[in-house]
Amino acid sequence: MEKEYSKPALDKRSALVKAESYCAYQERAQQEVRNKLYDWGLRTDEVEEVITELILNNFLNEERFAMNYVSGKFNIKKWGKIKIKQGLKLKKIPEKMILKALNTIDYDDYLKTILATAEKKSAVLTEKDAYKRKYKLITYLMGKGFENNLISEVLNDNNLR
């Protein structure tokens, strides 16, 4: 018989302090913090009180989180809007906030990113057949979360095959 050892549940006050440092370390979505508070053994009413306290003290801000998430995933990871939107949906960010954050991406920068990503991938593709090569390139770019119509536009405008 295995005994399951679990940590004693935190009281609301110490959970708030711990959650403040958790949020201060990096921007967090409300759902991430909520899950963490449940992991720490808080009850539903306590979790909601701590979340409210974090919002009032500006440790938690969904809009700020969404903006930072979009900025990081686009500028650093070179993700497309589709993949970014999915990531935000998984974190239970409201649709309006997702769209507002995605609209901060400059259209010209977005097209340049698609082109740069396509050129980088094209350089390492070993496929000789032009159709298969283009298919692999499109599939790769779609996997990065870029929209099909923009991929086609960028590839055609820059003669990438």
TrEMBL record:
<dbReference type="InterPro" id="IPR053925">
    <property type="entry name" value="RecX_HTH_3rd"/>
</dbReference>
<keyword id="KW-0963">Cytoplasm</keyword>
<feature type="domain" description="RecX third three-helical">
    <location>
        <begin position="108"/>
        <end position="155"/>
    </location>
</feature>
<dbReference type="GO" id="GO:0006282">
    <property type="term" value="P:regulation of DNA repair"/>
</dbReference>
<feature type="domain" description="RecX first three-helical">
    <location>
        <begin position="15"/>
        <end position="54"/>
    </location>
</feature>
<dbReference type="InterPro" id="IPR036388">
    <property type="entry name" value="WH-like_DNA-bd_sf"/>
</dbReference>
<comment type="function">
    <text>Modulates RecA activity.</text>
</comment>
<dbReference type="Pfam" id="PF21982">
    <property type="entry name" value="RecX_HTH1"/>
</dbReference>
<protein>
    <recommendedName>
        <fullName>Regulatory protein RecX</fullName>
    </recommendedName>
</protein>
<comment type="similarity">
    <text>Belongs to the RecX family.</text>
</comment>
<dbReference type="InterPro" id="IPR003783">
    <property type="entry name" value="Regulatory_RecX"/>
</dbReference>
<dbReference type="InterPro" id="IPR053926">
    <property type="entry name" value="RecX_HTH_1st"/>
</dbReference>
<dbReference type="GO" id="GO:0005737">
    <property type="term" value="C:cytoplasm"/>
</dbReference>
<dbReference type="Pfam" id="PF21981">
    <property type="entry name" value="RecX_HTH3"/>
</dbReference>
<dbReference type="Pfam" id="PF02631">
    <property type="entry name" value="RecX_HTH2"/>
</dbReference>
<feature type="domain" description="RecX second three-helical">
    <location>
        <begin position="61"/>
        <end position="102"/>
    </location>
</feature>
<dbReference type="InterPro" id="IPR053924">
    <property type="entry name" value="RecX_HTH_2nd"/>
</dbReference>
